[in-house]
Amino acid sequence: MAGSSNDSSPEHKPSVWLCHQTEGIEEPEPLWLTDYERDTVSKFSGPRRREYLSSRWLIRQAIAGASGQNPSGCRPVDGRPVASGEPGGWQLSLSHSHGLSACATLAGSPIGLDLEPCQRHPQWHKVARRWFSAVEQEWLFRDDDPNTFLKVWTLKEAWLKATGRGIAGNLQTLEVRRNFEMYGDRPEEDWQASCCYIEGFLVTVVYRGSRPIWPDFSLLEPPPPAFALVQAETLESSWEPLFQRTIRPKR
Q1: From the CB of residue 230, how many other CB atoms can be counted at a distance below 10 Å?
Q2: Distance from first CA to last CA of the chain, Å, rounded?
Q3: Which of 43, 90, 115, 151 is 20 to 30 A removed from 239 (C-alpha atoms)?
Q4: What's the pLDDT tens digit per position in 113-144?
């Protein structure tokens, strides 16, 4: 099933920009890197270095696509790329796994993104037993479906990114119950979650908004040689919507 994210609502919509990484020789650092990024990439080599450069290229493409600016004039804030630095006003979330990078954007509101390969779920019983709540363990073990576990895992990861926290000690701040009914530890009642399949990956987005809205998805061509910051072409792609939910405050 191909999804359509067209929506006439004036409310700001989350957008997700994706690209596959390419294999290649070690190339010189692109001139558009900030000093912070140049210092960071100098610590990497091989696939990890190319993954980092691909993600930094994609972030600029995502900000450009969201803002209507040229990619060469776009950059994230230094450090963890949670917001745009130029132009300002956009919240960001980055995720990459197994050769696919993704960047989510939303104007002025927190957003979190997580993606995982659809077949990635080794030793999931052990993970759930160690980190999930008793309520979550009960229904997950009863269902005994690794794909269900993976949906719960990406929901938790995206929630923590959207609320600005790491995994350690925080995985139970979002409780996911049967049928993906969700309760978070934030008092606001306008947290939303969307989950879908695209390009063989499970992609989950958590964001602040008054109602559930399917994000816009754009699959971009892979980075060109030397990671040139030209406007990337959009490739044909389809996505399969799974579910949307409002995250309710814990009582």
Answers
A1: 10
A2: 37
A3: 90
A4: 999 998 877 789 999 999 999 999 999 999 99
- pTM of the predicted model over 0.90: yes
Classify residue 222 by its DSSP letter.
Answer: P
Angstrom distance (rounded) from CA 114 to CA 18? 12
- Bridge partners of 160, per DSSP, are none
Contact call for residues 187 and 249 (beta carbons, < 8 A): yes
Helix, strand or coil for residue 81? coil
The rounded distance, in Å, linking the Cα atoms of 94 and 96 is 7
What are the pLDDT digits (tens) for 188-226? Answer: 889 999 999 999 999 999 999 988 999 999 999 999 999
Read off the amino acid at residue 249.
P
| Token code pair at residue 29 | 């650092």
Do residues 41 and 52 lie in contact, with contact meaning Cβ atoms separated by under 8 Å? Answer: yes
Whether 18 and 53 have beta carbons less than 8 Å apart is answered as no
What 3-state DSSP class applies to 137?
A: helix
String of DSSP letters for 96-133: EETTEEEEEEEESS-EEEEEEETT--TTHHHHHHHHS-
pLDDT for position 23: 79
